[in-house]
Amino acid sequence: MDIIEYLNEKNYSVEFNYAVIKELENIPDIIPDNEINSRENLFDETIITIDGEDAKDLDDAVSLKKLKNGNYLLGVHIADVSHYVKEGTAIDDEAFIRGTSVYLADTVVPMLPKKLSNGLCSLLPHKPRLALSCIMEILPNGGVINYEIKKTVIKTKYRMDYNTVYKILDGDMSGREKYAEIVPLLELMRELALVLRDKRCRRGSIDFNFPEAKVVTDENGKVTDIVKYKITIANKIIEEFMLVANETVAKHLLNNDLPGVFRIHEEPESEKITRLAGVVKPLGYKFKLKETVSPKAMQNLLFEITGTDAELAISTIMLRSMMKARYCEENLGHFGLAAQHYCHFTSPIRRYPDLFVHRILSMEIKGELTDEIKSVMFVNAKRAALQSSETEADAVIAERDYVDYKACEFMSDKIGQKFSGVISSTTSFGFFVQMDNTVEGLVRMVDLDDDYYEFDENNFVLFGKRSDKVYKIGDRIDVILSKVNTELKQIDFVPYKEKQIKKRGEKTNGTRRKHSKKSKHKGRRSK
Length: 527
Prior knowledge:
5-stranded mixed beta sheet, alpha+beta, 14 helices, 5-stranded mixed beta barrel, 21 strands
């Protein structure tokens, strides 16, 4: 019921209107032979999907070979949603309005109806599916030297999930025996993913290491736990392959003067970078300030703080200092990825910009892009970019708010219990503490009753006037849960062991925490 109420509050609907339903009835459940025969048939290729265990909209699949010349031949095969969703139809109009799918715990508000998102456009194993394939020849150093974008028909051989792939690559014998046919393929994918990742890092691409929250619910939808979503090499394989495909497609659009919706990320404002430097300096970290900041400088700072208690807080402040990525009909580059050109091509089931890009590529392949049509599509690209940016922003807020709501629900019966966390930010009214499972709460200034505290806005610390105690970003602290307001989505803590707080002027503990090399955390959601 809380999901239904929340959806109504946000004007989201899982259901589709009558016009959409009527159009769906006219879409055949089986792909006609003439459509299969008009495309390149890849039924004999070993193509697999790797997604979350509970994913149903499987819109991306991958294949990989090692060529005789030592290069890699990577295929990124994306569901050809544009074949089913034609411009000007009721389905397309509704997809444009929605702009994106919205994910709320175990509920999805889809951009497209289930017949498409979970059916005809989902790359289910052993089912013939229409695809738009980007086939890239990649050098051992990660550079793309040749590529083809073509309409294909595919059958995926295996529906793999991140956890299973991770276990196989980590040496799990039962998994390696069960999937013996594709173990060499998975190992080759890991090899190429690390090559591509290294190439991105060398050019300065910024990889934030934010933990993602996974809300665990029972059969009645009641939250039973909130855990940190584990990101492994399996996630990174798909991430790297999707990134290189997106860059390749964006470059293709530009080189051929085609309309497109680009994913752009502009340079951060100098005032916010100055503020970031002011935060990290008291914590003992160096951040070189110039007239303009480079992605490489920010990447170096992230590397320096990796594994420390200050990592989450500084990463959060760094992210807030940057511009928000958005969609644009012009290619303005992607600062965070240190990429000159970038677009979204790999998720047309859940993002409208990807569907728009697919539509352009399909029209190009079919020879339908006359000068007149191109002019119209350039105008449409601007509309799609603006609408998609707005709907994405709304979806991000909705998803975050709902996780916060569920966090309050989870914590509501734990009043008086002790928790450990890290100070993630400081303000004039207190400081926020984030627990290891990502749940965050506020310690209010009025609850610091052992002294009179003031906020040092230059060094971002709270300090006691008499005791000289300080609360600063990155400090680990034990707290007691004092209050939960589910309606306002607020969690309040009070300090438990104030003797843990360092004296003002002491150096921040930059010692790296012991952590497994196998579990660096980074989400797969779109950059």
